[in-house]
Design brief:
Rossmann fold, alpha/beta, 6-stranded mixed beta sheet, 5-stranded parallel beta sheet, binds pyridoxal-5'-phosphate, threonine biosynthesis
Amino acid sequence: MVSPFQVYRSTRSSDKQTYSFEDVVIQGLASDGGLFVPPEIPQVSQEVMFGKWAKLSFQDLQFEIMRLYVPQDEIPDADLKDIIARSYATFRSSDVTPVAKNVTGDKENLHVLELFHGPTYAFKDVALQFLGNLFEYFLQRTNKDLPPEQRKKITVVGATSGDTGSASIYGLRGKKDVSVFILYPTGRISPLQEEQMTVVPDKNVQTLSVQGTFDKCQDIVKAIFGDKEFNSRHNVGAVNSINWARILSQMTYYFYAYFQATSGKAEKLKFIVPSGNFGDMLAGYYAKKMGLPVEKLVIATNENDILDRFLKSGLYERSDEVASTFSPAMDILVSSNFERLLWYLALENLADGDTLKAGQIVNDWFQQLKTKGKFQVEKVIVENALKDFASDRVSNEETLATIKRIYEVSQKPQHYILDPHTAVGVTAAERLISSEKDASTHYVSLSTAHPAKFADAVNQALSSFDTYSFERDVLPEDLRKLSTMEKKIKLVDSADLKLIESIIDEESAKMGL
Ligand SMILES: *Cc1c(COP(=O)(O)O)cnc(C)c1O
């Protein structure tokens, strides 16, 4: 089947520019500042879904879904299958994303979708393992018959406050013609996080431990992207959460988890998703719009609650300051992928379905966000959003209380231990379950990290139990081993743009790629 979705466009396009899948993946962000979207969302019949898809493995399901968005003439079947197979062979679970059913006993129908079985124990592996292979695939095709000096190369530069850098590194390690530099603030990430990133021996990977704050690191990465001369020399790339291929690869687990929870039947089901940049949740929106019969998508935020406030008021307003919470991967001021949903909502609200007009509306909203820090949408837009979404906000105290409660009630066959991000989702899910009292609905709450990655919060919640031991109950063997492995750390004395650029120059030359 040839996909009809040959063209992607920007959410802010006031012109008619369209992009191929490859452009979209390599470029990440459109030149007008917008995000890439497929204008139409492919429809899948209930027959195909419950007759065929419900029986497929994660990988085969991923292939069927991607085939609808990635044209054959850009990636032939055999190549796409190979990329998918390699991307998920690195996962520790044969289901890739297994569902832990009824974690609190049989009555509640609360299931936990475990997205943390990839190499870095975080949900971002699902997307970044795939994206790394895709980068390499496109580059190798471009470079196929070129002499070494003409080969196209990409230098990926990113900053991390601790938990997200390692997923990028493990996605890109050892990839041909790609090098990766990840900046992090010296002494401000946990030892485990530092170990995960710095024990990677591949020569195309270099972490930079920078004297300064995370914000400084991030400012430098932005400045590097803005440095035209440096950029043209290094072909600087990003793998951040707005990359379309990340959203695309995350759709699969919504289908797969639905089939696992309902044993392949169409039943009432709600997903609850701990959200920050809205990439995870947006993939669920695509799944629902493709025809997966999901009753509701529930956005769970921590105290950084711009999404929850929007759904209650139609006002999208950035706070002055980011709150520092137990779920740091969700500590955001604005939710970058939310722009894609806003584009579909704007489009839906136009009688003529004119995609260019939708782009102008979104562009106008984001100009207001830039100048005034906020914009207000019409009531009908929020009403339409509420057909698919609900939202809840969860405090720090509630997050810890939930880790504790789930530990207590889930004693058979063993205690179930949540990471704090997952606990934000489970808090919202339990609130919903007790208000709805509907035993016929499945509630699938997404688990985005292994608890070992957030030891402080988990220990704070559980250390009062005599029976609890972090070392024994939480820490997996291969993370325990990290502390004994050799580390490759490059210390950088100051958060200075020119200094860091010169280090990247120097280290790139040493990599000899
Ligand atoms: C990135 C991340 C999230 C938030 O996902 P978004 O797609 O940004 O909404 C939640 N939990 C963890 C552990 C994460 O790393």
